Amino acid sequence: MKHLIVLAMAGTALCTGAVLSTNTGRVAEPLALHANNAGELAELCSPNPREPGADARMNFCDGFAQGALEVQLHYAGQNKPFCFPKPMPTRRSTMRDFAAWVRADSSRSGMAAPPALFRFLAERFPCKS
Question: Do 11 and 67 form a contact (C-beta atoms < 8 A)?
């Protein structure tokens, strides 16, 4: 779990200093992104594409998910908590489904982001015995 927290903090630090450029060529204000809980991660994973920073939010969502999964699966060894089917769904569609899963039950919103993501994945992609 410590590794996941360090990973999340590193991702947050990298994105905090991100500067967005607009179609007009002007530089926008720095965008601070963080996913302390499942609700915040769900919001990052389903931005309005017309709002400034939508690409940065989706990139943060994708990076957060990829990093968390790699750490979780590395430490799980042979005891995988979830198993992706073949062909594997896209990260984008899976994270969109995660956001819908969080919104479907308000009690999920306050969960820490990595454990919520892993719970969703275990429910959505259980390993067959």
Answer: yes
